[in-house]
Structures are given as C-alpha cells and as structure tokens.
Amino acid sequence: MHIRGDHAELVVGGRLDVRSAADARTVLHSAVDDGAGDLVLDLSELDSWDATGLGVIMGVHRRAGRCGRTLVLRGVPPQMQRLLVATRLHRILAIEGGIGVESLPRV
Questions:
Q1: Of the candidates 49, 59, 50, which has an alpha carbon nearest to the alpha carbon of residue 29?
Q2: What's the pLDDT at 2?
Q3: Paired strand residues for 12
Q4: Residue-number span of the structural domain to which 53 is assigned
C-alpha cells in the first residue's frame, strides 16, 4: 500500500487491508487533522480493500466530519463500487461523480 499527496488530496494505491490498515490510518488521520476543506482520496490506484480497509475509510469519514471537513472519494474502482453499494455505504460517503448503480455488473 502507498499513499502520496498532501492534506487536501491523497492517492491511495496497492492493497488497503489488515496488514496496511494501521499505517494508512495514521497517514489519513494526519491529513484530516492538518488540513481544511474537502479531503479527496483518489482510489484509482487501489488494487483491493478488505473489511479492515473499508473500516479505515469509514473512520476517516467520521474524523473528517468531526473536524468540519468532507471526505470525498474519487476514482473508485468498479469492484469497490459494488462493495459500497452492497453495504449501502454509497449513500453515506461522498463519491465524486456518484455511483451508477444500474451500470454495475451483478454478482
């Protein structure tokens, strides 16, 4: 897993899973705490995430809200869009461009 960027926009790549969750949480929480306005997470380079990784995203979402910021997801890969729809988190998280639920393949 790698994260690059600043306190306004970060690109997350690789795998966001139980092995990388602690490091990701530290970096993302620092970005929330050190910035202002929207925090954009570009997930276009993310290969996969598991339940722990999704928990990190939700924790950052909550922390951003407490700091008066909005977490915005950009470039969410299709397989991760399906997970957000299945868990109904697409209704809670701000996703740039939204998710075209009807265009996602059924699994």
A1: 59
A2: 83
A3: 3
A4: 2-95
| pLDDT by position in tens, the chain (length 107) | 788 887 789 999 999 999 999 999 999 999 999 999 999 999 999 999 999 999 999 999 999 999 999 999 999 999 899 999 999 999 999 999 887 655 555 55
Q: For residue 103, is it within any domain?
A: no
In a domain, 17, yes or no: yes
Distance CA 16, CA 34 (A): 22
Domain assignment present for residue 104? The answer is no
In a domain, 101, yes or no: no
Domain count for the chain: 1
Q: What CATH number is given to the structural domain containing 27?
A: 3.30.750.24
Structural Rg of the chain based on CA atoms: 13
Give the integer Cα–Cα distance in Å for 13 and 44: 7
Task: At 11, list the tokens.
Answer: 């690109």
